[in-house]
C-alpha cells in the first residue's frame, strides 16, 4: 500500500534516484574499500540500468538551462562508466592514486570546501560545520573506519541517497504524520543540493575529465555532472551563478572527517 496520495511511479522514481546516487558514490570511493568488486558485479546488474533509464525518461529530469560544467540527462547511463572500469582492483587503485594523489589532490580535490577561495578560512569552516549539521540532524554519526572529511563528494552523495531512502519509507508508510516526514526529507534534499552539492561538483567533474582523460574517472565525472543536473531539475534548484575553482590549502583541523554511519 502506498500512502500520501503518491503513485507507484513516484516511489519507483525515488528508488531509482537513490540507486544512482549510491552508484555515483561507489565510483568515486577509494578502491581500497573494495569498491572494484562491487562495481565489477554491477556490470551485469539490470536493476542499475533500469534505474538510469527510468530517470532519463522522466520529462521533469531535464535541466534547462544546464549550468556550466553539467551534462544533459542523456549522459546518465552507467554502461560507459562500467565499460571503462579497469580490469582489476589494483589497476583501479593505480588510476585512483594517479587522479587524486596519495593524500589530497590539488588538481581535482574531492571535497567541497576546497572550492572556496583559500582566503576565506571562516567560510570553509562554516561550510564543513553546515554539512556536519545536516548529517547530525538526521541521526548520522561519524565512523572511524573511513576517515573521510564531511564535505567529501562520496559522503555528500551518500547523504542524498539516505534522504531519498527516508523519503521513500515515509511515502510507503500508513502511519499518521508520515507526510510531514516526506516534506522534511524533500526540503532537506533541495537545500543540501542547492547549498552544497550542486555548486561545485560540475567543476570537480570537469577536472576529473582532464586528469583521467578517456578513463574511468572521466566517465564517472560525466555521470556525476549529469546526475546533478537532473536532480536540480527534479528538485527545482536554480543553476549555480558561477563556475567554481579549486583553491586547496591543506589545514590539519580540516583533515578530521568521517564516513557516514547511522
Write the layout of secondary structure elements.
Blueprint: H1 8-27, H2 35-42, H3 46-56, H4 78-83, H5 89-100, H6 121-137, E1 141-143, H7 153-171, H8 178-211, H9 216-235, E2 259-261
Antiparallel strand pairs: 1-2
Q: What do you see in this structure?
A:
By secondary structure, the protein is mostly helical. It has one domain (8-261). It is built from 9 helices and 2 strands; from the N terminus they run ααααααβαααβ. The protein has helices at residues 8-27, 35-42, 46-56, 78-83, 89-100, 121-137, 153-171, 178-211, 216-235, and strands at 141-143, 259-261. A two-stranded antiparallel sheet has the order 1-2. Helix 1 crosses helix 3, helix 1 (8-27) runs antiparallel to helix 7 and helix 1 packs antiparallel against helix 9 (216-235). It is globular, with a radius of gyration of 18 Å.
What's the short story on this structure?
This protein has helices at about 10-25, 35-40, 45-55, 80-85, 90-100, 120-135, 155-170, 180-210, 215-235; strands at about 140-145, 260. With about 260 residues, it is mostly helical.
Amino acid at each position: 500500500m502506498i500512502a500520501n496520495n503518491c503513485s507507484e511511479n513516484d516511489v519507483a522514481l525515488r528508488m531509482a534516484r537513490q540507486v544512482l546516487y549510491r552508484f555515483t558514490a561507489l565510483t568515486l570511493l577509494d578502491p581500497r574499500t573494495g569498491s572494484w568488486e562491487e562495481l565489477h558485479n554491477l556490470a551485469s546488474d539490470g536493476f542499475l540500468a533500469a534505474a538510469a533509464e527510468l530517470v532519463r525518461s522522466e520529462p521533469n529530469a531535464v535541466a534547462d538551462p544546464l549550468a556550466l560544467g553539467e551534462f544533459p540527462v542523456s549522459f546518465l547511463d552507467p554502461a560507459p562508466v562500467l565499460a571503462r572500469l579497469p580490469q582489476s582492483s589494483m589497476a583501479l587503485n593505480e588510476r585512483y592514486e594517479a587522479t587524486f594523489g596519495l593524500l589530497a589532490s590539488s588538481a581535482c580535490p574531492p571535497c567541497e570546501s576546497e572550492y572556496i577561495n583559500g582566503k576565506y578560512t571562516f567560510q570553509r569552516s562554516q561550510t564543513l560545520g553546515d554539512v556536519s549539521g545536516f548529517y547530525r540532524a538526521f541521526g548520522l554519526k561519524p565512523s572511524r573506519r573511513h576517515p573521510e572529511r564531511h564535505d567529501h563528494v562520496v559522503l555528500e552523495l551518500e547523504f542524498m541517497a539516505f534522504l531519498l531512502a527516508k523519503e521513500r519509507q515515509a511515502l510507503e508508510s500508513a502511519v499518521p504524520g508520515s507526510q510531514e516526514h516526506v516534506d522534511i526529507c524533500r526540503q532537506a534534499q533541495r537545500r543540501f543540493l542547492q547549498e552544497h552539492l550542486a555548486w561545485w561538483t560540475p567543476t570537480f567533474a570537469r577536472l576529473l575529465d582532464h586528469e583521467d582523460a578517456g578513463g574511468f574517472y572521466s566517465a564517472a565525472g560525466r555521470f556525476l555532472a549529469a546526475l546533478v543536473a537532473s536532480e536540480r531539475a527534479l528538485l527545482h534548484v536554480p543553476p549555480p551563478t558561477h563556475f567554481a575553482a579549486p583553491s586547496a590549502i591543506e589545514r590539519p583541523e580540516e583533515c578530521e572527517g568521517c564516513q557516514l554511519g547511522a
